[in-house]
Amino acid sequence: MSLIEAKGLRKVFRQAVKEPGLRGAVKHLFTQRYVDKHAVDGIDLTIREGETVAYVGPNGAGKSTTIKMLSGVLVPTSGELRVDGFVPHKQRMENAVRIGAVFGQRTQLWWDIPVRESLNLLKDIYQVPEDAFRRNLDAFVELLGMEEFIHLSARKLSLGQRMRADLAAALLHDPKIVYLDEPTIGLDVSVKQKIRSFIKQMNRDKGTTLLLTTHDLGDIEDLCERLVIIDHGRIIYDGSLQAVKDAFARERTIHLQLGSELAEPSLLFSDLPEVGMDRTGPYRLAIRFDRFRITASEIVKRIISQADVADFHIDEPNIESIIRRVYEGSLDLELAAESPVAASREA
Amino acid sequence: MKKYVSLAVCSMQNTLSYRLSFVLNFLGSFIALLATYFLWRAIYDGQSELAGFDWNQMKSYLLVTFFANSMLSYYSESGITNKVMDGTVAMDLLKPLNFQKARLAESLGSCVLEGLLSAVLISVLAIAAFGIPMPVDGVSGILFAISMLSSILVKFGIVYCTALICFYTTSGFGVIWARMAVTNLLSGALVPFAFFPDWLRNVAMALPFQGIVNTPTTIFLGMSDTREAILLIAVQWFWIAALWLLGRSMWGWAVRQITIHGG
Amino acid sequence: MTRTTLSVRNTPRRILFLYRRLFGQQLKAILEYSSDFYVMIGAAAFTQIVGFLFLWVVFSRIPVIQGWGFWEVAFMYAMIYFSEGVGSLFFEGTWRMLRLVNMGELDRYLVRPMPIVLQIFCTGIGMNGIGNIAIGGAIIGMSLYHVDIDWSITSVLSALVVLASALAVRIGINLAANCSAFWIRTSGNAFPIMVHNMGEFAKYPITIYSLGLQLFLALGVPFAFVSFVPAAVLFGKEDWAAYGWLSPLAAAYVFGIALLLLRIGLRRYESSGN
């Protein structure tokens, strides 16, 4: 059963255009010019109950805007949207009890009151039964290690503590769906681990559906089975994380430090046009290649024929570089999904 | 000197760029003027004279008061207070500027616009609706202009010293409100001193606030002869100097606090 | 994998309960963190006393203005401050809407299962309201004492209805005016403050104004129902007392407009970062 269903979802912001300088200010006084910014430009998204979805894209791609529409904060400009059968911005109340949300940098907690009081307040707001509240609170305090700071007010918490408290606040009422907007941004590794294992456990034990935006690829690899990539307000990839990894597992990059200048660089890989060569500094090269077409040792051999090689190392492929290159438009994931490697994996 | 001029110009531009806020604030105080105008009109209904003021004089009084009050308005005042409150003072210490002179320059800069706007509005009102008597001869006209300018400086002195109090409290609004209430009463902005009981009038005359409203209105209405007018202006300047020195020593004290204890 | 999705219905009782909870927590936080709200309380009380002195000075010259005596006008004057105080102390959040909107803080309100208005109201507490309520209440009490009023069960009941409506009108005006935050984003609170200043008109009997202004204060931004109409009802001014029946209607009208503006505003709400 699908929990979230969005069709042709769109959000347009109107932005006033200001011209610089005093003349611009005076002009602005009389004529206001606007441009439409299509933050989310017609996306279709279906998420089933219990799924874990990473929603990624470069800054300004429309990730947060989407999540805010799903959670009922923003009203869509057009398109259809249902979350567990309700239209979020119209049936705000029904939607609110079904979701939990953590919006990155901004806390949901009351700034000046102790975390424990905040959670108590939320209990009353969501009308969580006393026994369920006790059970959840005890579990959260232990899993997230909140004992040390639960008596402090939000303003006194470190970023990592605050994020943990926010997570507890978002999950206190056992929501069906949790939206996490950059949940681990700026946190150190141990807190990240705590948060990830907590989220994983919620998904495993309670079947909580998860939609996560992040720039942290560790989050994605740790938590999510499905990857949705958005750019310029449009979904450019929607499929399993594994398929993406497999498709691009053939990508490698070799970094070389040369002792002298290459004699004829253009001739090096003239037979292999898909090999990419970047100069990353004086006497430094980065070469991207498909390991099924050419081996690393073959590449090094060819370079040595033209120049001294002082040092080299090979980058293992990671999801980060893959996604980055999708943003840059140098990879086509639709093709990737059909690539022989991915196909063989599926089989 | 040049740097202070450019500060003033900058402040003027700033005021312009927040023009909507500025105009709305101005309208807000205009509403208060209208309300008191109608109140006085009702009071004068059937009375030819109250405390030595006839209705025409009272109208002039209201307009001149409004003009004096619109200088260094709430808008500019909160600007100074915010400077003290938001902790940017420490940054200002790094600049080769005298804090007090810089604030004065900024205030005068926005005063130009405030004065312009209210002058326009008042002229329209004066001509269209109220029909007020103007000072008759050139001498009292000039004296009024001088007292008006001095009024701004007196007000600056009071506002500046009050703003420095915000070093001791986080309640900037409270301090501004209290200052406004005191100024309103003791400057003669609410009601002419002539309406006061004797003791209150004596208290008011002994304090600097009267230089803001009472002095220019008295001169405008021709209620003082030339000698008295000059004396009143001299008293204004006594307060300008005294408040300037007070502000300077308060600032010096505050700076020592900052540099010793950290911002 | 068992889950019972909670359901939440906003009964009046629940709303009152939540208001108490939220207000109580805010109050605790304020008492703990900001030590010098007494400056605000003092300043608010002082401002009001000065205004009262003004009335007193004026009325010492002339006993009656258009049929209204000193204590009657003092009552109207005090109602404006008293209602302002109630607005500050219990509904201060309306004045924080600009920040809620501009900083995207409405986000967290929108994902919680309780009315937005309730959450806006509880965003803050203006302790200065205590000063206004104390002095305003005192002046109101004194004027009720000084004016000869024919007390009966009906007059007490109608007084209560009219006074409650007066407070509702005032808070509704605050809310509606502050909804401007959704449209005017660059000018601070200037617009709602200007609307707030229109209360100046209602410090005095509205009969002193021109007809256009009177209509505006009765039908446009109905400050007349905050001070003038309650005074007319309480002091049995026959020409105007009948308007007391419209007081609840005026409250409903103002709140209707405010909620409508909030609704439209929320559609435009852009959160932050965009």
From TrEMBL, chain A:
InterPro entries: AAA+_ATPase, ABC_transporter-like_ATP-bd, ABC_transporter-like_CS, ABC_transporter_ATP-binding, P-loop_NTPase. One of its GO terms (molecular function) is ATP binding. It holds the Pfam family ABC_tran. It comes from Cohnella thailandensis. SUPFAM superfamilies: P-loop containing nucleoside triphosphate hydrolases (SSF52540). Residues 24-257 form the ABC transporter domain. Keywords: ATP-binding, Nucleotide-binding, Transport. It comes from the Bacteria. Gene3D superfamilies: P-loop containing nucleotide triphosphate hydrolases. This is ATP-binding cassette domain-containing protein.
UniProtKB/TrEMBL annotation, chain B:
Keywords: Membrane, Transmembrane, Transmembrane helix. InterPro entries: ABC-2_transporter-like. This is ABC-2 family transporter protein. The keyword Iron-sulfur does not apply. The chain crosses the membrane at residues 20-40, 60-76, 107-130, 142-170, 176-196, 229-247. The lineage of its organism: Bacteria, Bacillati, Bacillota, Bacilli, Bacillales. Pfam families: ABC2_membrane_6 (PF06182). It comes from the Bacteria.
From TrEMBL, chain C:
The keyword Transmembrane helix applies. The chain crosses the membrane at residues 37-59, 74-95, 116-145, 151-173, 215-236, 242-262. Signal peptide: none annotated. Pfam families: ABC2_membrane_6 (PF06182). The keyword Cell cycle does not apply. Keywords: Membrane, Transmembrane, Transmembrane helix. InterPro entries: ABC-2_transporter-like. PANTHER family: INTEGRAL MEMBRANE TRANSPORT PROTEIN (PTHR36833:SF1), SLR0610 PROTEIN-RELATED (PTHR36833). This is ABC-2 family transporter protein. It comes from Cohnella thailandensis.
